[in-house]
Design a protein that fits this description.
- The chain is of the alpha/beta class.
- The chain has two domains: about 5-65, Ribosomal Protein L25, Chain P, CATH 2.40.240.20; about 75-235, SPOUT methyltransferase, trefoil knot domain (Alpha/beta knot).
- Helices cover about 30% and strands about 25% of the residues.
- The strands form two sheets. Strands 6, 7, 8, 9, 10, 11, 12 and 13 form an eight-stranded parallel β-sheet that branches. A five-stranded mixed β-sheet has the order 1-3-4-5-2.
- Helix 2 (about 90-100) runs parallel beside helix 3 (about 120-140).
- The longest helix has 22 residues, at about 120-140.
- The two termini are about 25 Å apart.
Length: about 240
């Protein structure tokens, strides 16, 4: 059954107009009145609904039963990633969402290739949030991870991961522990991963001072976007 994100209050028995994005998706799929769909608004669970009317640019649906199903990971994992260049950040957001990440924080580091600010950063954040929504529609998640505004690493570290007990930093330091050993248990965790050129020494020291613990993913050196996904997969 096709799934659509509908960020509106939903209740069984109501008839409503789908938001523009969801309506456009219904039309692209060429669904007709009587077609059954699944709606979720991010508050938990999902609703069955039936298409009642198809207009040129609008779609009306009748909301039916609510199902309190959840498909979230057992552990709350937040990914803070120095943004990889080109389309790799798109891929990172999509796959991290599928793997169950709770939120994504795009960061600018000293050696970042991709550097965003102002309107360009705001447009990219909205673009990545839309990718997370689409990934939830595809994979069955009913809660959409928040993609935060782009932030500078140093500024973010000043208030990073408040209240999150596990703060983990991908590091090449000799004292770095294996990820599974450093993150044993199911308590919430934030994983901080660097750009293509890696962290500077000063950035690593700043992260350690902010309570992050250095961890390693093994002997192989992974690409920036692969490292974040490997960590999310291991933690969730």
């Amino acid at each position: 059954m096709p799934r659509f994100h509908c960020p509106l209050p939903l209740a069984a028995g109501q008839t409503l107009q789908l938001p523009a994005g969801a309506a456009r998706h219904v039309q692209v799929l060429r669904l007709q009145p009587g077609a059954r769909v699944t709606l979720f608004n991010g508050d938990g669970g999902e609703f069955e609904a039936v298409v009642e009317r198809m207009g040129r640019s609008d779609v009306a649906v009748r909301v039916e039963s609510h199902h309190p199903v959840e498909r979230e990971a057992a552990r709350e994992v937040h990914l803070a990633a120095a943004m990889p260049a080109n389309e790799r950040m798109d891929w990172l957001v999509e796959k991290a969402t599928e793997l169950g990440v709770s939120s994504i924080q795009p960061l600018v580091a000293e050696r970042s290739v991709l550097r965003l600010s102002g309107d360009r950063a705001r447009k990219k954040q909205a673009h990545w949030q839309a990718i997370a929504v689409a990934a939830c529609e595809q994979c069955g998640r009913n809660r959409v991870p928040k993609v935060h505004d782009v932030a500078d690493l140093r500024s973010w570290l000043s208030h990073a991961a408040a209240g999150v007990p596990r703060r983990l930093l991908l590091s090449l330091r000799a004292e770095a522990l294996g990820l599974r050993d450093a993150a044993a248990g199911n308590d919430a965790a934030v994983f901080l991963t660097g750009p293509e050129g890696g962290w500077s020494d000063a950035e690593e020291e700043a992260a350690l001072a902010a309570g992050f613990r250095p961890v390693t993913l093994g002997a192989r050196v992974l690409r920036a976007e692969t490292a974040g996904l490997a960590a999310v997969a291991a933690l969730t």
